[in-house]
Write a structure and sequence with these properties.
Low-confidence stretches: none
Structural class: mainly beta
Distance between the termini: 40 Å
Shape: globular
Strand content: over 45%
Radius of gyration: 13 Å
Mean pLDDT: 95
């Protein structure tokens, strides 16, 4: 089983940037077809944000496309989410996910003045 540890969340002003990291252990991310990020804002259901396949194909939710970039470093066994031009609507707990589910503790992202 893979273990996932998210980090990089915090408080940022609108228009700012953050980079989230998901460090995996117990299994090489190369062998995991789906890795990505979901988020959950207060009062809302958890929603898809971005994904990357083992082959490097990426997909994004319409709400973040053009602002967020998902990437991976197989040597470091880590997946990243680079977030630019952040908006208050991006405020949520962000979870690192694999094919079987989102098993990390999540990291809080707050976008506010």
């Amino acid at each position: 089983q893979v273990q996932l540890v998210e980090s990089g969340g915090g408080l940022v002003q609108p228009g700012g940037s953050l980079r989230l990291s998901c460090a995996a252990s117990g299994r090489s991310i190369f062998s995991i077809n789906y890795m990505g990020w979901h988020r959950q804002a207060p009062g809302k259901a958890r929603e898809f944000v971005a994904r990357i396949t083992s082959g490097g194909t990426t997909n994004y939710a319409d709400s973040v496309r053009g602002r967020f970039t998902i990437s991976r470093d197989n040597a470091k066994n880590t997946v990243y989410l680079n977030m630019n031009s952040l908006k208050p609507e991006d405020t949520a707990v962000y979870y690192c996910c694999v094919t079987g589910g989102c098993w990390g503790q999540g990291t809080q992202v707050t976008v506010s003045s």
